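[stage:ingest] chain + small molecule (adenosine-5'-diphosphate)
[stage:ingest] validated
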Amino acid sequence: MNFETSSEGKNRLYRYRLQFRPLGLRLIFAFAVAFLISQLNLEYIDSWFFDLRIRARIFQKNTENIQLIYITPSTIQKLNGMPNSEYQNTLLKKLVSSGAKAIVYDIPISETPGSLLAKKTWATTIANNPQVYVASKETTLKGEEKNLYLSFPFENLKATPAPKTSDTLNFAKDSVTRRMILTYQDLPILQLQLARLYNPELVDPKNVRGHFLFYNTLQTYIDYLRPKAFKSFFIEDLGSNKIDFSQFKNKILIIGTDLNLNEAEYIRTPHSSSPTAMTRVEMLAHSIDTLIRNSSPLKLPLYVNWILLGLISAITIQIVLSMKPAQGLLTILGILAGFTLFCFGLSSFFGIWVTMAHPLLAGFLCYYFFIPYRLIIENRRSWEYYQKNKILSQVEELKTNFISMMSHDLKTPLARIQGMTDVILADSNSVSSQQREAIDTIKFSAEDLLKFVNAILNYGRVESQGFQLNIQSKDINNLLTEVVRKHEFLAKFKHIQIVMELEPMFPVPVDPDLIKQVFSNLVENAIKYSNDHTKILICNEEQDGKVMVQITDQGPGIPADELPHIFMKFFRSKNAKSSPIKGSGLGLYLAKYFTELHGGKIVVESICGNGSTFTVELPMNQGGSNA
Ligand code: ADP
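[stage:predict] done
[stage:export] tokens:
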């Protein structure tokens, strides 16, 4: 390993470190935020999202195995009171003989009116038919099952626990019933016992989808269908033989009340938080149906929530710190909306419940937390840029002033040199031919230097915006002829023919000195950069209230990648820099500036190797701006 490769390797490592350090820091931040957010109890919000998903369900179909029989205020009216024991007994016999799979009483049967004999007869019918269940609102501890036996004269009947489990003290604490108990101290409750009649795999409660342990109970979430999803009847209609009993074959029939008497009769549901949103009887039907379909929402394990939380925090921080603000905000909103839709889709199509509150909160918190952080960083950066820029413009000003001063001071000695060479050359006999050649060289060099000095002086004036237009009405053709005459000597020297095709024109309002400089720079470039024995065409025309002057040469052209830069100050092409052709890189910059000062423009078309055409457009009316 030599020294160079090892230091290069170190450099690369350093670069990687620089590149990944912020990423690493952001990840640490993201996970710290995710950890803090995960500690918040957002069960209320999560339950709200849960309810929303239940309400937004697309596919909903019950198993049609459960039907409800109601005692309502109209029953009381029609039967002159609650259906008595005799009525109930007659009805039960008919229901049993219809072939119903299970008949459930969710009413306090011991409080049913009737004679002792009628009650005893009814109790015997219930006891003789094992498919008849009496639901209890309570659960009892193991060893205290005797509490489930009903009071005289129903003392031989044992009720089956079917409690409602509203979130009053736990979870969302909003009294909505979202869960059901499956087993209490390992004993199956009514809903599970009934569902097993259709779904034998539930003999093992662990086979219930989405089950979880809560204190001493195994529980699961109820997969609510829309309210009133089950067929229901009024009990008085069954007694009056209006109903065809054959439809009850193989069904679970639940007899209950909808009397609007007390809250215990009703539950709040994900569909509505009204205290009487759904009858207890219907809640039992939804629970049993959920179990028969085994479709309880499956809550994903906690670590999935953690991963989602971390991911959303990290992505949000990355977006806030690296994207443009508006674009970042839209992207974050898009991601959060996408995540919400994804969760709704999972719940709708696969019954999978992803807790959304923490990840969504992470998105919003990370956004609001890191926006000020980004603002601070950007503020600091722009302050640094501002400072640097201030220093740079001061240096630039100093440089321009210095160059202008220098150039100005150079002009006088240059004029003296030119004057002296003219004096010597005027007397041709006083110098030998060798000396004459040397003096010619001095003269040309002085001319070059003077051009350079003039260009720099003009540049200084441009930078300090010191040009005032001295507008006069001039014939453009005269100006062009003057410029060409000035360059004839140079063209002849290179055997370049300048062809002028000028149409007669009306005078145009221009500053003659500046416009002559524009043409002069273009003609001089055309001669300078073209090979010997080529042609230059200068033509003009009037178009849409503008004068167009075109100068076309057969020179080397300008490479396409350099074309956009040629009007920049001090720009010289690579070829020009490496050739002996002299130049300051200011000619075209000044030509463009002067043309634009007149409200005109200058454009170039060039094909590398095939010559260039510069077009100057000048307005014919006085539209020029004064600098
Ligand atoms: P310079 O003093 O270098 O001539 P200019 O600003 O006049 O500066 O021109 C900028 C560059 O544009 C030149 O260096 C040259 O490469 C290119 N250029 C200008 N005119 C022509 C032309 N007629 N043919 C080819 N290249 C040209």
